[in-house]
Amino acid sequence: MLNIDKIRNGIVIDHIKAGQGIHIFNWLGLDKAPYTVAFVVNASSRNMERKDIIKIDNTIAINFDVLGLIDPNITVNIIENEKITEKIKLKLPEKVENIIHCKNPRCITSTEKYIPHIFHLENSRERTYRCEYCDEIRSAGDFRNAGQ
């Protein structure tokens, strides 16, 4: 049996689709963290069969829109004094800014670098987003190529 100590104050990112946890771990730069981080891959789950879990023994700022793009079924638990004080159920964000970048060479964001890349949810089932300026359609997974 795997035993991981309780978190005093921190964050647990739970219900991550098996295999997707590494994207979150890397995006958050947790390999360089000066505090304790537990990364569990392929944990058994009653609801999901298999899942990944990340336990962070520290309070850090996290962009929940990015987590929602990676996996909208993620649950984030905020831990204080070894107890869950808040449970956040993520979803696909309706609007994202500077997470997905437009690749259309005719889009104004290609020539005017100061303009933010703004995308609106087009189809939640297919997880696609539409550029606010040129209507280019991008996948929710395209944010990984945005230079994060």
The oligomerization state is: single chain
Helix/strand class: mainly beta
Number of strands: 9
Question: What radius of gyration results from the CA coordinates?
Answer: 17 Å
> What is the global morphology?
elongated
Average residue-wise pLDDT: 89
Give the SSE order as H and E letters: EHEEHEEEHEEE
InterPro entries: Asp_carbamoyltransf_reg_N, Asp_carbamoylTrfase_reg, Asp_carbamoyltrfase_reg_C, Asp_carbatrfase_reg_C_sf, Asp_carbatrfase_reg_N_sf
Domain Aspartate carbamoyltransferase regulatory subunit C-terminal: 95-138
Protein name: PyrI
GO molecular function, one term: metal ion binding
Protein described:
The chain has helices at 21-27, 64-70, 108-111; strands at residues 10-17, 37-45, 49-56, 75-80, 83-89, 95-97, 118-123, 128-131, 137-139. The protein is mainly beta. The chain has 2 domains: 10-89, 2-Layer Sandwich (Alpha-Beta Plaits), CATH 3.30.70.140; 95-142, Aspartate carbamoyltransferase regulatory subunit, C-terminal domain (SH3 type barrels, Roll). It has a 5-stranded antiparallel beta sheet, with helices on one face. Strand 7 (118-123) and strand 8 form a beta hairpin. The longest helix is centred in the first third of the chain and has 7 residues, at 21-27. It is elongated and about 55 Å long. The termini are far apart. The model has no long low-confidence stretch (mean pLDDT 89).
Brief account:
This protein has 148 residues and is mainly β.
